[in-house]
Protein backbone atom coordinates (compact mmCIF):
# COMPACT_ATOMS: atom_id res chain seq x y z
CA UNK A 1 0.00 0.00 0.00
CA UNK A 2 1.51 3.30 -1.09
CA UNK A 3 0.74 6.80 0.06
CA UNK A 4 0.04 9.11 -2.84
CA UNK A 5 -0.12 12.88 -3.12
CA UNK A 6 -3.88 12.90 -2.51
CA UNK A 7 -3.49 11.18 0.86
CA UNK A 8 -0.64 13.48 1.88
CA UNK A 9 -2.74 16.51 0.90
CA UNK A 10 -5.66 15.27 2.96
CA UNK A 11 -3.47 14.74 6.02
CA UNK A 12 -1.99 18.25 5.68
CA UNK A 13 -5.48 19.72 5.29
CA UNK A 14 -6.73 17.93 8.40
CA UNK A 15 -3.71 19.13 10.42
CA UNK A 16 -4.24 22.73 9.31
CA UNK A 17 -7.94 22.53 10.15
CA UNK A 18 -7.29 20.99 13.56
CA UNK A 19 -4.46 23.20 14.72
CA UNK A 20 -4.97 26.38 12.74
CA UNK A 21 -2.34 28.42 10.96
CA UNK A 22 -1.27 30.27 14.12
CA UNK A 23 -0.40 27.12 16.07
CA UNK A 24 1.58 25.33 13.34
CA UNK A 25 4.90 27.22 13.78
CA UNK A 26 4.70 26.62 17.53
CA UNK A 27 3.99 22.94 16.92
CA UNK A 28 6.88 22.61 14.47
CA UNK A 29 9.27 24.32 16.92
CA UNK A 30 8.18 21.97 19.69
CA UNK A 31 8.67 18.90 17.49
CA UNK A 32 12.13 20.15 16.48
CA UNK A 33 13.18 20.63 20.09
CA UNK A 34 11.86 17.19 21.00
CA UNK A 35 13.83 15.62 18.16
CA UNK A 36 17.03 17.39 19.27
CA UNK A 37 16.55 16.15 22.83
CA UNK A 38 15.89 12.63 21.58
CA UNK A 39 18.97 12.65 19.35
CA UNK A 40 21.19 13.94 22.16
CA UNK A 41 19.90 11.24 24.52
CA UNK A 42 20.51 8.52 21.94
CA UNK A 43 24.02 9.86 21.33
CA UNK A 44 24.66 9.96 25.07
CA UNK A 45 23.53 6.34 25.43
CA UNK A 46 25.80 5.26 22.56
CA UNK A 47 28.76 7.12 24.06
CA UNK A 48 28.05 5.58 27.44
CA UNK A 49 28.03 2.09 25.96
CA UNK A 50 31.15 2.63 23.83
CA UNK A 51 33.45 3.92 26.57
CA UNK A 52 34.59 2.18 29.70
CA UNK A 53 35.09 5.50 31.52
CA UNK A 54 31.89 7.18 30.41
CA UNK A 55 31.36 9.32 33.51
CA UNK A 56 33.59 12.19 32.40
CA UNK A 57 32.07 12.32 28.95
CA UNK A 58 28.52 12.15 30.29
CA UNK A 59 29.17 15.05 32.64
CA UNK A 60 30.63 17.06 29.74
CA UNK A 61 27.67 16.19 27.51
CA UNK A 62 25.21 17.23 30.20
CA UNK A 63 27.07 20.51 30.65
CA UNK A 64 26.91 21.11 26.88
CA UNK A 65 23.18 20.29 26.87
CA UNK A 66 22.56 22.72 29.72
CA UNK A 67 24.52 25.45 27.91
CA UNK A 68 22.52 24.77 24.75
CA UNK A 69 19.09 24.91 26.41
CA UNK A 70 19.99 27.94 28.53
CA UNK A 71 21.23 29.94 25.55
CA UNK A 72 19.16 33.02 24.62
CA UNK A 73 18.17 31.55 21.25
CA UNK A 74 16.39 28.64 22.94
CA UNK A 75 14.38 30.75 25.37
CA UNK A 76 10.70 31.38 24.63
CA UNK A 77 9.96 34.58 22.80
CA UNK A 78 7.57 37.09 24.22
CA UNK A 79 4.67 37.82 21.95
CA UNK A 80 2.85 41.11 21.96
CA UNK A 81 -0.75 41.30 20.79
CA UNK A 82 -1.18 43.08 17.50
CA UNK A 83 -4.24 45.29 17.71
CA UNK A 84 -3.28 48.06 15.32
CA UNK A 85 -2.88 50.73 18.02
CA UNK A 86 0.31 52.23 19.30
CA UNK A 87 0.99 53.29 22.88
Task: Count up the helices.
Answer: 2
Strand content: under 5%
The SSE order reads: HH
The major sheet is characterized as:
none
Distance between the termini: 58 Å
Give the overall shape, derived from the CA principal axes: flat
Instruction: State the helical fraction.
Output: over 70%
Q: How many strands appear in the DSSP assignment?
A: 0
Whole-number radius of gyration?
Answer: 20 Å
Question: Would you kindly provide a written description of the structure presented here, covering whatever features stand out?
Answer:
The protein has 87 residues and is mainly alpha-helical. It has a domain at 19-47. The chain is built from two helices and no strands. Helix 1 packs across helix 2 (54-70). The termini are far apart.
Short characterization:
By secondary structure, the chain is mostly helical. The chain has two helices and no strands.
For the structure shown, list the relevant keywords.
87 residues; mainly alpha; 72% helix; 0% strand
Compile the SSE list and pairings.
Blueprint: H1 5-50, H2 54-70
Helix pairs in contact: 1-2
